[in-house]
Amino acid sequence: MTTEDARNIAIRVRGVTKAFAEVQVLRGVDFDVEAGTIFALLGSNGAGKTTLVRILSTLLKADAGTAVINNWDVVSAPGGVRESISLTGQFSAVDEMLSGRENLELIARLRHLKNPGAIADTMLARFSLTDAGSRKAAVYSGGMRRRLDIAMSLIGDPPVVFLDEPTSGLDPQARIDVWQTVRELAKHGTTVLLTTQYLDEAEKLADRIAILHHGTIIQNGTLDELERLLPSTTVEYVEKRPSLEDVFLALVDDTTTSDAGTASVTKGF
Ligand SMILES: Nc1ncnc2c1ncn2[C@@H]1O[C@H](COP(=O)(O)OP(=O)(O)OP(=O)(O)O)[C@@H](O)[C@H]1O
Ligand SMILES: [Mg+2]
């Protein structure tokens, strides 16, 4: 590895394979993620996204290949990897019997950080959960729970963040809130690897997009690069109508967000 690579590449994956019994899920996965960027791993149900994330976060051993996170090898230095990452899984790690604040405090204590109460308050504020902080997580909406889950995983400011399907099951506004959170992370230098089945999520968030299909990365590039893979289409003139997403977002939210597209829709038609 050259010095330049060591400085810029936060996640390096080479030739990773994994089979479960006779099912060969990963057949040689290769990619790099530059530090401070958002990398989206796209794939259908069962493509192996969660399997790969579990390998990169040391929860599962690959059959072959190497993965280096923040300059730590997942096999020879799993402790270094764990200290460098956070993982928000496809299924929530929130303890429903505890309040939002208690969940955050618990993680701060487990990470041996000073002032867990103050850390919890900061995270509640950062994720717009201050008002709900003392309520049990069991009564949170899906979007609130997901934000709490992400907040919990970010305690201690890990340089590399894995988000496995961060917005599945969320309504459009909650998805945009999570996207904003992810953008903020990358803006502050955190490297984000997210998996998703939503093409628009990858389109709106990611610096680079990789497509995992039949166990390998079949394409990896910026949105522009991926779009250029298709032959240019014939130009047609059509009346532009707002998408359902534009209309929905305009109706449910008074504040116009950059993702909402068309801004003005008259309420109450
Ligand atoms: N522990 C396991 N034992 C056996 N098979 C497994 C195990 N974990 C995953 N698999 C299989 O590996 C394949 C890939 O699963 P994985 O969960 O990685 O897919 P995914 O891309 O995350 O899908 P989804 O979009 O549905 O979350 C599936 O066929 C799954 O059944
Ligand atoms: Mg999955």
Automatic annotation (TrEMBL):
Keyword Transport part of the UniProt annotation: yes
Membrane-protein topology: Peripheral membrane protein
Domain ABC transporter: start-end pairs: 11-239
Family under the similarity heading: Belongs to the ABC transporter superfamily.
Protein name: ATP-binding cassette domain-containing protein
SMART domains in the record: AAA
Stored Gene3D superfamilies: P-loop containing nucleotide triphosphate hydrolases (3.40.50.300)
Source species, domain of life: Bacteria
Any GO molecular function: ATP binding
Alphabetic keyword roster: Antibiotic resistance, ATP-binding, Nucleotide-binding, Transport
Pfam families given in the database record: ABC_tran
InterPro entries registered for this protein in UniProt: AAA+_ATPase, ABC_transporter-like_ATP-bd, ABC_transporter-like_CS, ABC_transporter_ATP-binding, P-loop_NTPase
Subcellular location: Cell membrane
Transport keyword on record: yes
